[in-house]
Amino acid sequence: MAAKGFAKFIIVLTTVSAAVMELIDTSIVNVALSDMAGSLGVSIEDVSWVITSYAIANVIIIPLTGFLAEYFGRKRYYLASMVIFTLASYMCAESNGLVEIIIWRFVQGVGGGALLSTSQAILFDAFEPKDRPVAAGLFGMGLVLGPTLGPTLGGYLIEHFSWPMIFMINLPIGIIATILTYTYIEKKPGEGKNRKNMHIDYNGILLLAAGIGCLQYVLERGETEDWFSSETIRICGIAAIVTLTLFIWYELRIKNPAVNIRVLGDRNLAFTTIFTFVTGLGLFTSVFVYPVLAQRVLGYTAYETGLALLAPTMIGVLMMPIIGKSMAKGVPAVRFVVVGLILFAAYCWLTARVSPEVGISAFFFPLALRAFGISMVQLPLINQAVAGLQPKDYPAGIALNNMIRQLGGAFGIALANTFIAHRYAQHRTDLVANITDGAAQVTERTTAIAQGLISKTGADITTATHTAHAIISSAVDRQAYYLSYLDTFRLIALFFIIVLPLAVFLKTKKKSAEEEAAAAAAVAEAH
After folding, report:
1. What kind and span of H or E run contains 157?
2. What is the pTM of this model?
3. I need a surface site. Which of 149, 202, 347, 410 has the fewest CB within 10 A?
């Protein structure tokens, strides 16, 4: 039943705020990686597990939220998820070691994935069917606004406070949202009453969690541990193959699987998930690599890095309702998807051409292209996922599509770390090969730096020369990282370009009014 007046306003405020809070936490950590790595005494590559663990938890929980909400009751499940997310945020802030914060980020991701999925369902129920496009627009703006605010808010908090504050800021929002949910959001008729007749696919859930966890460990630690020369990597690699194979086999056999992968028999959905995977890979990876490039190489502060994302990405927020109305008027979703992928590839390619002396304003146009690209793939891909399905299969198709997007993001971050490490080693070797003792330019540069140090600090010639060598080595490191980050953006662009021809396999059939209504309901329940 639709809400009225003040109650509707509170429901909109609560659900959109909860969703934005969850989405902020997918990107707020990105600008804090350098500070967290220094504080915890680990490398940036190691601390990126703080991002990956959150994404893995999302991958696991998103396809299960519909079942869990029905099993426990939607309001009760929503409240529990909010409490878990808020408590885990506090524990992340209090963590003193890498393993500890990775565990709590995983728990936070379990609560957060449920917040995102259930918030939209509750928001849709607060509106009459004819007004649900308004609800979709509000939620769509939140989908873009959350990841946009994350780096900016994170940068401000890092600059003025310290990294634990990026988690502590969730506490007042989470507490207020919990109170408002308990007070104003009503239970659905009969929710949580059908528990006795429901089957929990424990085996499927365990196989999915084990398979994804082992796969991510291989991807994340493979470069560091020299891939399959490491016994741990070999064991995890075999475990990932076995458990994921068993997961697929088992889910195809049972009547009520945790993830209904049978719907992938629809060609349109199968090809849509490829686009969704690549989109997730690009979105998560670009938001991971750009802040590290800006801070480690270009010398921006965390706040400057986040601020550079804010203005151009707000374009995407404004584009969401326009795209929604265009699709409602019959513009095929596949057109938006193709244009969005091209724009995102263009963003990556332009970013891969930046100079190490570039000013922050030079990123505005590329990031604006990224914003347009995001807005043109978010909702259209959800619509495209169900274009060839029967209404009864819409929830399974959308849940699977959303899981694939999160999996693409987790895979992309791990891939980026491995690729950056490999390219850094290669570029540093190439650069060092051009720096030989006795070379005129090297000698001249070393002498100039040493003389400058002697005149400024009064150091002796031996100390000044050693310091000059260290400065040159640091410059080589910076240049090697700079080149490796640019290579990573080119790689992302390549993924987008490769999948473009597959657009010919996507259906563009317009759905009837009844099918559109069923799809909208499925999006609300499964997203």
Report:
1. helix 132-160
2. 0.77
3. 202
